[in-house]
Protein backbone atom coordinates (compact mmCIF):
# COMPACT_ATOMS: atom_id res chain seq x y z
CA UNK A 1 0.00 0.00 0.00
CA UNK A 2 1.36 3.43 -0.95
CA UNK A 3 1.93 6.33 1.42
CA UNK A 4 -0.98 8.27 -0.06
CA UNK A 5 -3.30 5.25 0.30
CA UNK A 6 -2.36 5.01 3.98
CA UNK A 7 -3.08 8.70 4.49
CA UNK A 8 -6.45 8.43 2.76
CA UNK A 9 -7.42 5.46 4.93
CA UNK A 10 -6.53 7.43 8.07
CA UNK A 11 -8.85 10.31 7.18
CA UNK A 12 -12.42 10.41 8.45
CA UNK A 13 -15.40 11.30 6.27
CA UNK A 14 -15.29 15.01 7.13
CA UNK A 15 -11.58 15.31 6.40
CA UNK A 16 -12.03 13.54 3.07
CA UNK A 17 -14.83 15.87 2.03
CA UNK A 18 -12.86 18.97 3.01
CA UNK A 19 -9.82 17.69 1.14
CA UNK A 20 -11.84 16.72 -1.95
CA UNK A 21 -13.55 20.13 -2.10
CA UNK A 22 -10.25 21.99 -1.72
CA UNK A 23 -8.70 19.99 -4.56
CA UNK A 24 -11.71 20.29 -6.86
CA UNK A 25 -11.94 24.02 -6.17
CA UNK A 26 -8.25 24.49 -6.88
CA UNK A 27 -8.35 22.43 -10.09
CA UNK A 28 -11.33 24.47 -11.31
CA UNK A 29 -9.98 27.95 -10.52
CA UNK A 30 -6.27 27.69 -9.75
CA UNK A 31 -6.85 29.76 -6.62
CA UNK A 32 -6.45 28.81 -2.93
CA UNK A 33 -9.69 27.64 -1.34
CA UNK A 34 -10.71 29.17 2.00
CA UNK A 35 -12.83 27.85 4.85
CA UNK A 36 -15.67 30.31 4.20
CA UNK A 37 -16.04 29.02 0.64
CA UNK A 38 -16.25 25.45 1.92
CA UNK A 39 -18.73 26.33 4.68
CA UNK A 40 -21.28 27.59 2.12
CA UNK A 41 -21.25 24.34 0.12
CA UNK A 42 -20.57 21.72 2.79
CA UNK A 43 -22.92 18.75 3.03
CA UNK A 44 -23.45 19.20 6.78
CA UNK A 45 -23.83 22.29 8.97
CA UNK A 46 -20.36 23.04 10.35
CA UNK A 47 -18.66 26.27 11.29
CA UNK A 48 -15.82 27.93 9.41
CA UNK A 49 -13.65 27.42 12.50
CA UNK A 50 -14.23 23.66 12.38
CA UNK A 51 -13.30 23.52 8.71
CA UNK A 52 -10.18 25.64 9.40
CA UNK A 53 -9.11 23.10 12.02
CA UNK A 54 -9.59 20.24 9.54
CA UNK A 55 -7.59 22.13 6.91
CA UNK A 56 -4.78 22.70 9.42
CA UNK A 57 -4.72 18.96 10.16
CA UNK A 58 -4.54 18.23 6.43
CA UNK A 59 -1.70 20.71 6.07
CA UNK A 60 0.12 18.94 8.90
CA UNK A 61 -0.30 15.65 7.00
CA UNK A 62 1.38 17.27 3.98
CA UNK A 63 -1.53 17.05 1.54
CA UNK A 64 -2.51 20.75 1.67
CA UNK A 65 -0.33 23.84 1.68
CA UNK A 66 -0.66 27.62 2.14
CA UNK A 67 0.90 29.46 -0.80
CA UNK A 68 0.31 32.89 0.76
CA UNK A 69 -0.45 34.39 4.12
CA UNK A 70 -4.19 34.10 3.41
CA UNK A 71 -6.32 31.37 4.96
CA UNK A 72 -6.76 29.64 1.59
CA UNK A 73 -5.20 26.24 0.90
CA UNK A 74 -4.05 24.40 -2.21
CA UNK A 75 -3.17 20.71 -2.63
CA UNK A 76 0.51 19.79 -2.47
CA UNK A 77 2.07 17.41 -5.00
CA UNK A 78 1.47 14.56 -2.53
CA UNK A 79 -2.11 15.75 -2.10
CA UNK A 80 -2.72 15.75 -5.84
CA UNK A 81 -1.25 12.25 -6.05
CA UNK A 82 -3.61 11.07 -3.28
CA UNK A 83 -6.57 12.65 -5.05
CA UNK A 84 -5.66 11.14 -8.44
CA UNK A 85 -5.02 7.67 -6.99
CA UNK A 86 -7.94 7.41 -4.62
CA UNK A 87 -10.64 10.04 -5.14
CA UNK A 88 -10.78 11.11 -8.76
CA UNK A 89 -14.04 10.50 -10.62
CA UNK A 90 -13.31 9.61 -14.23
CA UNK A 91 -15.93 10.30 -16.82
CA UNK A 92 -16.16 9.27 -20.45
CA UNK A 93 -15.08 11.39 -23.41
CA UNK A 94 -18.01 13.46 -24.64
CA UNK A 95 -19.70 12.47 -27.88
CA UNK A 96 -18.29 15.63 -29.48
CA UNK A 97 -14.72 14.72 -28.43
CA UNK A 98 -15.10 11.14 -29.66
CA UNK A 99 -16.46 12.28 -33.00
CA UNK A 100 -13.49 14.60 -33.50
CA UNK A 101 -10.95 11.80 -33.01
CA UNK A 102 -13.03 9.23 -34.87
CA UNK A 103 -13.17 11.50 -37.93
CA UNK A 104 -9.36 11.84 -37.94
CA UNK A 105 -8.77 8.10 -37.67
CA UNK A 106 -11.47 7.46 -40.26
CA UNK A 107 -9.57 9.57 -42.77
CA UNK A 108 -7.37 7.00 -44.51
CA UNK A 109 -5.59 9.52 -46.70
CA UNK A 110 -1.88 10.25 -46.23
CA UNK A 111 0.75 8.37 -44.29
CA UNK A 112 0.69 7.38 -40.62
CA UNK A 113 2.95 10.30 -39.71
CA UNK A 114 0.51 12.81 -41.19
CA UNK A 115 -2.43 11.22 -39.39
CA UNK A 116 -0.55 11.31 -36.10
CA UNK A 117 0.23 14.98 -36.68
CA UNK A 118 -3.51 15.61 -36.90
CA UNK A 119 -4.16 13.46 -33.83
CA UNK A 120 -1.66 15.56 -31.87
CA UNK A 121 -3.30 18.80 -32.99
CA UNK A 122 -6.75 17.49 -32.09
CA UNK A 123 -5.59 16.25 -28.68
CA UNK A 124 -4.10 19.65 -27.93
CA UNK A 125 -7.23 21.46 -29.08
CA UNK A 126 -9.64 19.27 -27.11
CA UNK A 127 -7.66 19.30 -23.84
CA UNK A 128 -6.27 22.85 -24.12
CA UNK A 129 -2.91 21.39 -23.07
CA UNK A 130 0.23 20.54 -24.97
CA UNK A 131 0.04 17.15 -26.65
CA UNK A 132 2.78 14.59 -27.18
CA UNK A 133 2.57 11.86 -29.81
CA UNK A 134 5.43 9.39 -30.11
CA UNK A 135 5.23 7.84 -33.56
CA UNK A 136 5.72 4.09 -34.03
CA UNK A 137 9.12 2.52 -33.76
CA UNK A 138 10.15 -0.29 -36.10
CA UNK A 139 9.67 -3.51 -34.18
CA UNK A 140 11.01 -6.17 -36.56
CA UNK A 141 14.00 -8.19 -35.27
CA UNK A 142 17.42 -6.85 -36.26
CA UNK A 143 19.60 -8.94 -38.56
CA UNK A 144 22.81 -6.89 -38.62
CA UNK A 145 24.35 -3.70 -37.19
CA UNK A 146 27.23 -1.66 -38.56
CA UNK A 147 28.88 1.55 -37.29
CA UNK A 148 30.49 3.94 -39.80
CA UNK A 149 32.67 6.87 -38.73
CA UNK A 150 31.83 10.00 -40.76
CA UNK A 151 33.78 12.64 -38.85
CA UNK A 152 35.34 13.15 -35.43
CA UNK A 153 31.98 14.14 -33.96
CA UNK A 154 29.59 12.22 -36.21
CA UNK A 155 28.93 8.58 -36.97
CA UNK A 156 26.32 6.47 -38.69
CA UNK A 157 24.70 3.30 -37.47
CA UNK A 158 23.22 1.05 -40.16
CA UNK A 159 20.45 -1.29 -39.00
CA UNK A 160 19.35 -4.17 -41.22
CA UNK A 161 16.09 -5.76 -40.07
CA UNK A 162 14.95 -9.31 -40.72
CA UNK A 163 12.06 -8.06 -42.87
CA UNK A 164 14.49 -6.33 -45.25
CA UNK A 165 13.94 -2.84 -43.80
CA UNK A 166 17.17 -0.79 -43.54
CA UNK A 167 17.66 2.30 -41.36
CA UNK A 168 20.57 4.74 -41.26
CA UNK A 169 20.80 6.85 -38.13
CA UNK A 170 23.25 9.65 -37.41
CA UNK A 171 24.53 10.16 -33.87
CA UNK A 172 27.32 11.94 -32.03
CA UNK A 173 29.78 9.31 -30.71
CA UNK A 174 31.69 9.83 -27.46
CA UNK A 175 35.09 11.53 -27.88
CA UNK A 176 38.05 9.30 -28.79
CA UNK A 177 36.26 6.80 -31.00
CA UNK A 178 38.32 4.98 -33.63
CA UNK A 179 37.32 2.73 -36.55
CA UNK A 180 38.71 -0.16 -34.49
CA UNK A 181 36.53 0.57 -31.44
CA UNK A 182 33.49 0.91 -33.70
CA UNK A 183 34.17 -2.48 -35.29
CA UNK A 184 34.55 -3.96 -31.81
CA UNK A 185 31.22 -2.47 -30.75
CA UNK A 186 29.51 -3.79 -33.90
CA UNK A 187 30.96 -7.27 -33.36
CA UNK A 188 29.77 -7.21 -29.77
CA UNK A 189 26.24 -6.24 -30.83
CA UNK A 190 25.99 -8.66 -33.74
CA UNK A 191 26.84 -11.52 -31.39
CA UNK A 192 23.73 -10.61 -29.37
CA UNK A 193 21.36 -9.24 -31.96
CA UNK A 194 19.84 -12.22 -33.74
CA UNK A 195 16.07 -12.38 -33.37
CA UNK A 196 15.85 -9.31 -31.11
CA UNK A 197 14.02 -6.04 -31.68
CA UNK A 198 15.69 -2.74 -30.78
CA UNK A 199 13.96 -2.52 -27.40
CA UNK A 200 14.84 -6.15 -26.59
CA UNK A 201 18.43 -5.54 -27.67
CA UNK A 202 18.70 -2.46 -25.46
CA UNK A 203 17.69 -4.49 -22.41
CA UNK A 204 20.15 -7.25 -23.35
CA UNK A 205 22.96 -4.73 -23.82
CA UNK A 206 22.32 -3.14 -20.45
CA UNK A 207 22.61 -6.52 -18.74
CA UNK A 208 25.64 -7.59 -20.80
CA UNK A 209 27.48 -4.38 -19.92
CA UNK A 210 26.90 -5.14 -16.25
CA UNK A 211 27.99 -8.77 -16.63
CA UNK A 212 30.97 -8.20 -18.92
CA UNK A 213 32.12 -4.69 -18.06
CA UNK A 214 35.74 -5.80 -17.69
CA UNK A 215 35.71 -7.55 -21.06
CA UNK A 216 34.38 -4.64 -23.07
CA UNK A 217 36.68 -1.86 -24.13
CA UNK A 218 35.49 1.30 -22.40
CA UNK A 219 35.24 3.20 -25.68
CA UNK A 220 33.20 0.42 -27.26
CA UNK A 221 30.91 0.45 -24.22
CA UNK A 222 30.36 4.19 -24.61
CA UNK A 223 29.69 3.74 -28.30
CA UNK A 224 27.12 1.04 -27.62
CA UNK A 225 25.35 3.20 -25.07
CA UNK A 226 25.48 6.31 -27.24
CA UNK A 227 24.57 4.56 -30.47
CA UNK A 228 21.64 2.48 -29.26
CA UNK A 229 20.34 3.87 -26.00
CA UNK A 230 20.53 7.53 -26.96
CA UNK A 231 19.50 7.99 -30.56
CA UNK A 232 20.62 11.31 -32.02
CA UNK A 233 18.98 10.90 -35.42
CA UNK A 234 18.62 13.84 -37.76
CA UNK A 235 15.98 14.33 -40.42
CA UNK A 236 13.18 11.87 -40.95
CA UNK A 237 13.13 8.85 -38.68
CA UNK A 238 10.58 6.17 -37.80
CA UNK A 239 10.79 7.50 -34.23
CA UNK A 240 9.54 11.03 -33.97
CA UNK A 241 8.19 13.15 -31.15
CA UNK A 242 5.30 15.39 -32.18
CA UNK A 243 4.70 18.32 -29.82
CA UNK A 244 1.51 20.30 -30.38
CA UNK A 245 -0.22 23.11 -28.51
CA UNK A 246 2.83 24.72 -26.92
CA UNK A 247 0.95 28.02 -26.62
CA UNK A 248 -1.79 26.37 -24.55
CA UNK A 249 0.67 25.52 -21.82
CA UNK A 250 2.50 28.84 -22.02
CA UNK A 251 -0.78 30.69 -21.55
CA UNK A 252 -1.87 28.49 -18.66
CA UNK A 253 -0.04 30.57 -16.07
CA UNK A 254 0.89 34.20 -16.41
CA UNK A 255 3.60 34.29 -13.77
CA UNK A 256 6.94 35.20 -15.33
CA UNK A 257 8.92 32.59 -13.40
CA UNK A 258 6.59 29.74 -14.38
CA UNK A 259 6.50 31.00 -17.95
CA UNK A 260 10.28 30.83 -18.16
CA UNK A 261 10.44 27.30 -16.70
CA UNK A 262 7.80 26.04 -19.12
CA UNK A 263 9.50 27.77 -22.06
CA UNK A 264 12.75 26.03 -21.12
CA UNK A 265 10.90 22.69 -20.98
CA UNK A 266 9.64 23.06 -24.53
CA UNK A 267 12.98 24.30 -25.82
CA UNK A 268 14.48 21.11 -24.40
CA UNK A 269 11.73 18.91 -25.87
CA UNK A 270 12.17 20.43 -29.32
CA UNK A 271 15.91 19.82 -29.21
CA UNK A 272 15.54 16.26 -27.96
CA UNK A 273 16.13 13.52 -30.51
CA UNK A 274 16.17 10.88 -27.80
CA UNK A 275 12.54 10.14 -26.99
CA UNK A 276 13.17 6.73 -25.43
CA UNK A 277 12.22 8.04 -21.99
CA UNK A 278 8.63 8.57 -23.09
CA UNK A 279 8.35 4.95 -24.14
CA UNK A 280 9.88 3.90 -20.83
CA UNK A 281 7.15 5.89 -19.06
CA UNK A 282 4.46 4.28 -21.18
CA UNK A 283 5.86 0.74 -21.01
CA UNK A 284 5.65 0.77 -17.22
CA UNK A 285 2.13 -0.63 -17.46
CA UNK A 286 -0.94 -0.75 -19.60
CA UNK A 287 -3.38 2.12 -19.46
CA UNK A 288 -2.97 5.79 -18.60
CA UNK A 289 -0.19 6.89 -16.26
CA UNK A 290 -0.14 10.25 -14.50
CA UNK A 291 3.08 11.99 -13.47
CA UNK A 292 2.72 15.05 -11.25
CA UNK A 293 5.52 17.59 -10.96
CA UNK A 294 8.84 16.11 -9.88
CA UNK A 295 7.54 12.51 -10.16
CA UNK A 296 8.76 12.72 -13.76
CA UNK A 297 12.29 14.12 -14.08
CA UNK A 298 11.60 15.33 -17.62
CA UNK A 299 9.09 17.87 -16.29
CA UNK A 300 10.27 18.43 -12.73
CA UNK A 301 11.77 21.86 -13.42
CA UNK A 302 8.61 23.21 -15.01
CA UNK A 303 6.32 21.83 -12.31
CA UNK A 304 4.07 20.37 -15.01
CA UNK A 305 2.01 17.20 -15.08
CA UNK A 306 2.09 14.52 -17.76
CA UNK A 307 -0.83 12.23 -18.57
CA UNK A 308 0.49 9.52 -20.92
CA UNK A 309 -0.79 6.26 -22.35
CA UNK A 310 0.95 3.67 -24.55
CA UNK A 311 -0.54 2.42 -27.77
CA UNK A 312 0.05 -1.08 -29.06
CA UNK A 313 0.20 -2.96 -32.31
CA UNK A 314 -1.86 -6.02 -33.23
CA UNK A 315 0.53 -8.21 -31.22
CA UNK A 316 -0.10 -6.14 -28.06
CA UNK A 317 3.42 -4.70 -28.07
CA UNK A 318 3.93 -1.10 -27.00
CA UNK A 319 5.13 0.81 -30.06
CA UNK A 320 4.43 4.43 -29.12
CA UNK A 321 2.68 6.79 -26.73
CA UNK A 322 0.31 9.74 -26.63
CA UNK A 323 0.01 12.21 -23.83
CA UNK A 324 -0.90 15.67 -22.59
CA UNK A 325 1.33 18.08 -20.67
CA UNK A 326 -0.22 20.83 -18.58
CA UNK A 327 -0.02 22.61 -15.26
CA UNK A 328 -0.47 20.44 -12.17
CA UNK A 329 -4.06 21.69 -11.90
CA UNK A 330 -5.14 19.76 -14.98
CA UNK A 331 -8.73 18.58 -15.18
CA UNK A 332 -7.59 14.98 -14.66
CA UNK A 333 -11.12 13.56 -14.59
CA UNK A 334 -11.71 14.77 -18.17
CA UNK A 335 -8.22 14.42 -19.66
CA UNK A 336 -7.43 10.86 -18.51
CA UNK A 337 -10.37 9.30 -20.45
CA UNK A 338 -9.52 11.41 -23.53
CA UNK A 339 -5.86 10.29 -23.52
CA UNK A 340 -6.93 6.67 -23.03
CA UNK A 341 -9.48 6.86 -25.86
CA UNK A 342 -6.93 8.51 -28.18
CA UNK A 343 -4.29 5.86 -27.44
CA UNK A 344 -6.75 3.07 -28.28
CA UNK A 345 -7.69 4.74 -31.56
CA UNK A 346 -4.06 5.33 -32.54
CA UNK A 347 -3.19 1.71 -31.77
CA UNK A 348 -6.03 0.55 -34.02
CA UNK A 349 -4.97 2.98 -36.73
CA UNK A 350 -1.36 1.77 -36.72
CA UNK A 351 -2.38 -1.90 -36.58
CA UNK A 352 -4.77 -1.47 -39.52
CA UNK A 353 -2.11 0.33 -41.55
CA UNK A 354 0.40 -2.44 -40.82
Automatic annotation (TrEMBL):
Going by the UniProt record, its keywords in alphabetical order are: Repressor, Stress response, Transcription, Transcription regulation
Enumerate the SUPFAM superfamilies for this protein.
Answer: GAF domain-like, Winged helix' DNA-binding domain
Domain (Heat-inducible transcription repressor HrcA C-terminal): give its ranges: 115-336
Q: Which NCBIfam families match?
A: hrcA (TIGR00331)
Q: Which organism is it from?
A: Sulfitobacter brevis
Name recorded for this polypeptide: Heat-inducible transcription repressor HrcA
Give a short account of what the protein does: Negative regulator of class I heat shock genes (grpE-dnaK-dnaJ and groELS operons). Prevents heat-shock induction of these operons.
GO biological process assignments: negative regulation of DNA-templated transcription
HAMAP family from the UniProt entry: HrcA
- Indicate the family of this protein: Belongs to the HrcA family.
InterPro entries linked: GAF-like_dom_sf, HrcA, HrcA_C, WH-like_DNA-bd_sf, WH_DNA-bd_sf, WHTH_transcript_rep_HrcA_IDD
What molecular function terms (GO) are annotated for this protein?
Answer: DNA binding
Top-level taxonomic group = Bacteria
Amino acid sequence: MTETSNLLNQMNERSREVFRRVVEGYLASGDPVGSRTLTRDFSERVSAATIRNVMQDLEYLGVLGSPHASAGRVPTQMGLRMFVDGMIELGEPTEQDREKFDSIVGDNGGDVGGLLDRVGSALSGVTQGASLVLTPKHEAPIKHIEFVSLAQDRALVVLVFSDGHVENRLFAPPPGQTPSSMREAANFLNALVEGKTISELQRTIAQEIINRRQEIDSLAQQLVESGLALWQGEGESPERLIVRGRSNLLNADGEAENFERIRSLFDDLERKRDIAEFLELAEGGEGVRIFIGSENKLFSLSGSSLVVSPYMNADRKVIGAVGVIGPTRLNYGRIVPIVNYTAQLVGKLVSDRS
